[in-house]
């Protein structure tokens, strides 16, 4: 289906009648080191959502571009809203969609920092039986493949993310800067001291804003990631389409 | 300047250093009758913001696609968030930008329903001396011209809006439906009974979701509107660039 | 009916049984230039509400004296609460009334700054089917007449408001100061730059706090305004009494 | 001084310059049994505040008519807002006044149910050094005298309240109903079971809505109460005027 | 019954099935002068709740240790949360319990400053028919006995409290400091000026943090208080067990 | 040091003067399958905090017993508060402590569900430079050891948790039920479908409420875990004591 925003209300009436599920892309606008664009995360989400337009049983909502990125705020260009605001924005958007009869959705998410808020939004919508809308982080669907492709701990603007962006928005990566990204990168995300997770802000542990080994990135790997994750997304949508509502909602007390 | 989200943090550091002002496009995804796409308002805002990428003194933020559209909720495809949530989303986004040193902005707005929330966000940012970010509704800058071009009261999905969309996203208008839009349209916005504004929801007074006389629309008129309003926007940006901060902030008690 | 607050609970039981509609006067305590009292807006609302005590089908609630006047705060004597607080105060008051069976109301409003909050309160009460309580701004019911009587753009403490106060609270106007009010007045409300509404605070555009041409004021004009607007208010009440609840509530999805 | 709302902003400038303290009357609109008007509490507060207009060092704010009366909601005519809303309304009103330089106030309160909210508002204003604004419940200033005048436990719409109202708004009491009030009254406020305070709502323990022995009321006793309490209020204002700000604010950590 | 937290979920299933009522102990961690431990109030609540473990019809919840103690903050060791947060913490805890079928409770409270929040929580739970959970302040159940035992006005860390603690946590009192406590104590709680309750913080009126005459304390008196209050608590629980739900909930409009 | 709540304010003055750091134990009261007590998580936190009483440079706050456990609500005995309320309760408690000069703390946490809220509280306190208070989940400090001791994925009421409880509160485990716990356990936490984390509630994926292989539990393993984690906690406290405040606070913009 054409993205929802590109349809008239008349066309949307039919589309929403036919749709079994929706896709809401969410990401962020935040530093991704010297080689990747600030919009990396919402661009990734957008690209995955775009593959869904080929389906007749799914409607694609507009991409939400600013997310929970307070921990990147010391790096230029990072935009952010609070977790509460982001959660409300997503939850209310999905709730308004439910009024038109589409009450299953996948939040296609490109930014790890959004996860907790998305889980809470999904929990609320589910408990109230408004909608069943689990978030889907693209990288969580391809952990095995990315383990094969890259030798890094990673976590942000790493080889995995860089490859994906290289594939989906080739013109926006600056490959010459991957070395600089890596030079200033931390090995893994955050900083742990005797079991306590510190590293409240990225700047606490990464000089360049990147984490991992971005020089391992290449566009072919990105393509493989993209194809593999897209496949998972569509499998998830198929699964969701088939799932009876009775199994979507919260279970009663034992 | 390239849109902010397409820049790396390194490039953004320079861009934000050079920028005197930012542009944040906001709109909605809501019914615009049978002839116009649901994304009309954020597409218009996006198109105006896009003209700003040619400037070296301005940075363009990502487009916020869902707004305050509860009053269109009975029409298929309308998405909405609450006024509080929309206000917070905009205010926090601009506040995060201000951390990078850009503290003047124009919120390029395509949806009248967002106005009250945008005014409040701008007021708060101004009173706290975080940023000076007045909203700019594109149609308010061309009232004279639209009076010349169209003979309608209008107010939503009317000849003026239809013309603009026809110009900026020609492929998304369905001109054959303009007659149907007009057939079911109310003459003006809302419904007034003895001075009391009723018409809480569009459905209370419009059958098709449109208001005004959309059949008067044509793409040339749209182009004239777009050019004229763009000119006003750029004049506003020039004015804002020149305005000393001392004149931006709230005045003290007399 | 005697104003509600002057009745015992026993008398109120009968009165509320008989009543089809309520009237809640709201205004502000804020600067109105050198000639008018700070309480102008709540006094006007009170005066209109007072005419309703002659009806047997309407109950008159106490006047809410402080409103949304942050934009007048630089002028001495202005009191204000936030939009959220004002909205909650009005909405909860009307909701508590509804528990006694009166679920239609007109909010007789004397202050333009209250309008957005009153609209939101009315929307919430309507969507929840607690009460149907549209706000009524007295000046919106007499636009034609005030166009005849005065030659001004106006908007605050202008000839229209001054005339009305002169009629309803003659002892509180200082006619000798109307010239000073006008000398420091702006022509119209606010300040527009290339289509962007600036003028966040009155002090941004008016020296005296007034807007328009207050020297055109006189008490006979005030009387005509008062009579005409009262007539509209009573016509609105008649209309509301007759309106079936089914037509008051929000409509379902198309 | 003339009540603030009756002054122009010009006059208010002088008045606020001269004023050392403000008075904000608060009450409720709630059942007071079959003999007293619903507005009893705000009328009492208003009457006491009115005596303050004779002073040159005090400014009198408008009366806030609806308060924290949820516990009376089962009786006809009771209006109420939530504790949070009432607290915010009062706190923000006093905070707006403080912008004009008057930062000491007495909240002249006629309704016991408002007390907790008023204490919290006063605490916040004090801790933030915005204003020092302790609430004053009129009956707390005349406990000795009322002990002499009446032989009752009382607590609401009792002989003490009835007498006061009889004095200040003679036309609004219905003395013939005092017997009925007493017949259905509980002896004291609330209901205690093994030390637990029950009696969440008045209807839980009082048939008529009254508490105590209202038949002991008479207007002369009311006059004595009014005079005595007024004297206390003025003594409090004198004390407050003399109190240095350094002694008004919260003390530092030991 | 064993305290709830010490049971497995399997055991709890039976216990909750058998239980008619729950007990939630609440207190504070705040200064109690030089002789008593900071945890006085939650320790007292805990001790009373502990006597309930002998009952088969009651379940004992964990003790909530930090309460509404902002007014003691200038004294070392005082911890506190806001009234809103404390209210929510208690209300949500009781609401979660109600999901397991136990919808009557007594909040066994050891701290006067918690009372208003506990009343509000109980009111909300009752109005929503989630649970009937009146707070019980132990000292309110033994006013007569404490009048006999002690000759003091008191109110905080006084002879009454000191005696109780001496009995329940003998090892934590420092009897040698009772004289110092009394030397710096105020006679009664707070400070009243012409009927206005000042004394926002304890430090405003008490040097040592104590109020009353703590030197009258002794452990035997404490034991008598404890036994008497425990008896009242159990009588209250018996009463609550027998009370039909229909009499627990709010009454309808008259 | 003696736990804070067991000290008088006089003793606390010295203790807080001497203290460099505080420890706040947090946990939950929630189902832990048929073999472990509901209070498992707060008991574990309490036990670790208890080891800190031997230090002269640390103060131990009372244990917060109810946490973020909504996902266990279908199992008997689970108590919970919302994430917002829990976050506020912790943040305000630590903020009140900071008023006494102790501005470093470790939140010793026994419940994974509390983590996101604790991170947010810590972030806020850090950004506002009120306190530096990272949460410490005991199991995160002994991942290597638990990998050696147990062959399970686990995640809740597993062999690791069971062992720990067996060591610290031997009398509260029911070893005979470990087999039943395991029989109804899921292998790992949650349920993942094509990369989307489902398993919003424990009941969605675990029959017994347990996860992992609890039959591997034994008290000696528990002792080793406890000793190892305690050592880590004390090392963390040492590290924190030595950390200059300048390195605790958020870093400025690059």
Q: Enumerate how many helices of chain A there are, as a single number.
A: 9
- Beta-strand portion of chain A reads 5-15%
Write down the CATH topology of chain A: Rossmann fold
Q: Which two chains have the most extensive interface, and how many residues on each?
A: A-B, 55 and 56 residues
Assembly state here?
homohexamer
What is the number of beta strands of chain A? 6
Show unreliable segments of chain A: none
Strand order of the largest sheet of chain A: 2-1-3-4
Helix content of chain A: 40-55%
**Could you give the distance between the termini of chain A?**
41 Å
Shape of chain A: globular
- The CATH superfamily of chain A bears the name Creatininase
Q: How many whole angstroms does the radius of gyration of chain A measure?
A: 18 Å
Order of helices and strands of chain A: HEHEHEHEHHHEEHH
Query: What top-tier CATH class of chain A fits best?
Result: Alpha Beta
Structural class, from helix and strand content of chain A?
alpha/beta
Biggest β-sheet description of chain A: 4 strands, parallel
Q: What is the typical, i.e. mean, pLDDT of chain A?
A: 98
How many independent structural domains of chain A?
1
The CATH architecture of chain A is 3-Layer(aba) Sandwich
């Amino acid at each position: 289906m054409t993205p929802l925003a590109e349809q008239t209300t008349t066309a949307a009436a039919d589309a929403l009648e036919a749709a079994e599920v929706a896709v809401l892309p969410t990401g962020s606008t935040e530093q991704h080191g010297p080689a990747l664009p600030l919009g990396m995360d919402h661009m990734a989400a957008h690209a995955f959502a775009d593959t869904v337009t080929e389906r007749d049983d799914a409607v694609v909502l507009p991409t939400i571009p600013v997310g929970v990125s307070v921990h990147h705020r010391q790096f230029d260009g990072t935009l952010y809203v609070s977790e509460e605001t982001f959660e409300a924005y997503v939850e209310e958007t999905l709730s308004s969609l439910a009024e038109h009869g589409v009450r299953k959705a996948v939040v296609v998410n490109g930014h790890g920092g959004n996860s907790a808020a998305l889980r809470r939004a999904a929990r609320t919508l589910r408990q109230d039986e408004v909608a069943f809308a689990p978030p889907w982080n693209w990288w969580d669907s391809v952990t095995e493949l990315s383990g094969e492709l890259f030798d890094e701990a990673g976590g942000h603007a790493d080889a995995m993310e860089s490859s994906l962006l290289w594939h989906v928005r080739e013109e926006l990566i600056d490959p010459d800067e991957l070395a600089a990204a890596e030079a200033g990168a931390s090995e893994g995300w955050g900083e742990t001291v005797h079991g306590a997770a510190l590293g409240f802000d990225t700047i606490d542990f990464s000089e360049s804003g990147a984490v991992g080994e971005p020089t391992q990135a290449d566009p072919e790997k990105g393509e493989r990631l993209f194809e593999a994750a897209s496949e998972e997304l569509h499998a998830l949508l198929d699964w969701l389409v088939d799932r009876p509502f009775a199994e979507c909602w919260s279970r009663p007390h034992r």
